[in-house]
Amino acid sequence: MSRTIAIVLMAGGALVALALCIYLYFEPLSGVSDTPAPLLTGFGALCILIVTFILARLTHGGWRVLLIILTALALILSAVAAVFMMHAEVAIALVVSAAGFLFLLAYQQTHRQESRA
Amino acid sequence: MTRLTFAAVALAALAPAAPLLAQEGDWPTFNGNLAAQKYSPATQITPENVGDLELAWEFETGDVSDGSGELPTSVWSATPILANDTLYLGTPFYRVFALDPGTGEVRWSYNTDSTLEALTQPALKSRGVTYWEAETPVEGEPCQKRVYMGTMDSELHALDADTGELCTDFGDDGILLVNKWNDVNAEWPLSLLQPPTAYGDQLFVGWAGADWEYSVASPGTVFAIDARTGERNWQVDFIPREIRDRTGTANVWASMSVDEERGILYLPVSSPSPNYYGGMRTEPIELATSVTAVDTETGEIIWSRQLVHHDIWDYDTGSAPTLVDLQVNGETVPALVQSTKQSMLYVLNRETGEPIFDYEERPVPASDIEGEEAAPTQPFFMTPPPSHDFESYPEMSTLANLVSFGQCADMIDGMRYEGLFTPPSLEGTIVYPGTAGGMQWGGGALDPETNRYYVNTSKVVQTLTLIPREEYDELQGGSGNEQGLYPQIGSPYGFRLLNWVTDNGLPCWKPPYGTLLAYDLKTGEMLWEVPLGRSKKWGFFGPAGWGSPNIGAPVITAGGVLFIGSTMDARVHAIDPRDGTELWSDHVEAPSVANPAVYTYEGRQYVAFVAGGNTILSPEVGDQIAVYALPLDDD
What we know:
The structure holds 2 protein chains of 2 kinds.
Chain A: H1 3-26, H2 36-57, H3 62-84, H4 88-116
Helix pairs in contact in A: 1-2, 1-4, 2-3, 2-4, 3-4
Chain B: E1 2-3, H1 5-14, E2 39-40, E3 54-60, E4 74-76, E5 81-83, E6 86-90, E7 95-99, E8 106-111, E9 124-126, E10 129-133, E11 145-150, E12 155-160, E13 175-177, E14 197-199, E15 202-205, E16 221-226, E17 232-237, E18 248-249, E19 257-259, E20 264-269, E21 272-273, E22 290-295, E23 301-306, E24 322-328, E25 331-339, E26 345-349, E27 360-363, E28 377-380, H2 398-403, H3 407-412, E29 429-431, E30 445-447, E31 452-458, E32 462-468, H4 469-475, E33 485-486, E34 493-499, E35 514-520, E36 525-531, E37 536-537, E38 540-541, E39 555-557, E40 562-564, E41 571-575, E42 582-587, E43 597-601, E44 604-611, E45 624-629
C-alpha cells in the first residue's frame, strides 16, 4: 500500500462523509435536516480531512502520537454518530477513511523501520 | 351513567345487522368510513409486495411555520379525503387544495383568509376537510357535492367540490360563523380544527377550546347543522345548566362516528374545565369524559357512559369510537371500542352502552387539595388489557440520571404517586399515562373481517404540580406554553405540567417510549405489542427497541398491511398485522402525525401520508403530502 493511496482513502472518505453531511443537513427528506447531528458528524469529518494532511507530513514526535489518538477518536465518534443518524453511507465513508488512516500509519511505521535499517 | 334504556331497546329492536365497510376505492371521511374503522378494502398492496412501494407523487402546500417568524408554529394533522375522484386537503393556514389523486396536480385551491393567530391553541392546527354530497343531486346545479373547511376563528366554509367556489346558500354567502352560538362564558372562539362529521343531510360540528386557560369557559356542545343551509337543527349540551357559572368545556374536539343503520351518533366527550382542579365543579357532570350516543335526527341522548369520574387529569375521551360487529359465541353483538389517553380500551354494546367484558369500580386515592373532592372510585376496564401498567410508572433510567447529574431523581423527589388516578397535588404528582396519552386522538384501526383492532400508544411520564394562585401570579402573569405553566384563571390554582425529561431532553424513564398493539376483540386478548418507530433528539435516533412517542393512527387494508406514520423519526411505516413486523418504511418531511388515507384511483392503490409535524413530538414541521404506490410495472 503506497502512502498516496492511504492519503487518498483517508482524505477521500472524510471528504465524502463531509459532503454527505452537508447534503443531509439541507435535504428536507433526509430525516436529519436542520439538526445538529449532521453538523457534528460533518465537523468530525472535516477535522479528519485536515488532520490527514498534517499526519502525512508528521513522521515522528510527541505531537504525532497525540494526533493519532485524536484522529482515532474522531473517526470512532463520527462513525458512531453516523450510525445513530441512521445514514449508513456516512458511516461507510468514515470506515473507508479509517482504513486509509490505518494504512497511512502502517506505511509510516514500515518506512521508519526501513530508514533505521 | 346516563341511560335512556327504553330508547336504546327500541332502537336495538329495529336495527338490522349490517356490515360497516368503506366504499371501495374512496376514503371519504376522516376515519375512512363513518364507523371510524380506518379500514380499506383495497388488496393490491400485500405483505409480499409492500417492500416495492415507491413515492408516486408528493406535494408541498407552502402552509408551514416553525414559529420563528411572525406566525405561530403549524401543526398539520389532516387526513386526505378521497371522494369525487379528487383528493381534498385542508391546511393549518386554513386553505383547501383539490388535487388529482394520481399525480398531485392542483385542480383548484381556496383560501379562507382566516386570521393566522393561535387564538385557542398554542399552534395553527387543522385536521382537514369534510366531504358531503347530496343523495339526490339536482342536475346542473352547483354545490351538489361540497367540501367544508373549518378555521381557528370559528368559520365554516362550504365549497363546491368541483370548482372550489363558495356555496352561497350556506351560512352567510357560503360562510357559517359557528361562534354565533357561543353564547355562554365565551372566553374564546369555538375553534373548528377537527372537520365536522357528515351524515345524511347534516353536519355534526364539535369544537376545540382552551380548558387549561380558564376555569369558566364555553360549555361543551355539538351542533347538528343542515349541510345545505348551515341552519342549526339541534344541539346537544354536556354541562348542566345550573353549574355553567363554575365550569365549561366537556366538549367534543375529536372526530365522531355514526352507526348508519341505527342512526346513532357516537361522541367522545372531553373533560370539563379547568383541567386539573375540580373544586369548583364537585357535582357529578355525568356526560363529561364519556362516550355518549345521540340520535342523529333529534340530538336526544340515547345513552352515555362516563369513563373517568370527576376528571382532574385531562383524560379527555379523544378519538371517535370504532364501531364493530363482534362475533361472540356465534352471535353478532353490535359493539364499539373506545381507545383512551388513560390507555384503557372500552368495549361497549353500542346499542345500550353496557360493557361487553367485565369491569370494576376500584377505589382510587383521595385528593389532599383543599376544596377538591376526587371521586372515590374509578371504572377499570381490564379486558382487553390496557397498554400501560396502572400500579407503577416505568423505572428511572440510570443513564439519564447519571448524565443529568441526578436531575431525573430530583425532578420527582417528594412527588405523589399511588397508581393511575393519583390526584394533582401541591408537592407534584407523577402522571402515567401522561395527559397526552396513552392512545391519542387518532384512535385505532379495525379489520372487520377478523375483529382485530390495532392501536398505537405513547408511554410518557409527566409531572403535574398545582401552584397556588398568588404564587403562580408571581411566577408569570399569563399562560405558558403547552408543556409548562398554565393559569386556570378563576380557580385557586395554576399548574405546571412537564414531561419527565432532563434539561437536555433525555427521557428519565426506561423505554419503550411508544408501541403498537394488536387486540382480538372477540376474546379481549392482546395479541402482540411492538415498539413503534424510533425516538429522535438533535438528529440522532434511538435504538429500534426503544420506540417513539407517537401521535396519529394506523389504517389497515384488506390486503393485509397496516400503515402508520405517527413517530418522531419522521418515517412512515408498513407493518405486518399478523405479528407487528415492520415490512417497509420511508422518510417524509416531518413526523406524519395524521391518519393516513388509502385509496384506489384508476385501478391503482395509493397510500397517502400528510407530513406536518407536531411540536409536542419534535420541532420538525412540514407541509408535505407523500403518496405511495407500487411501481406501475408491478400492478
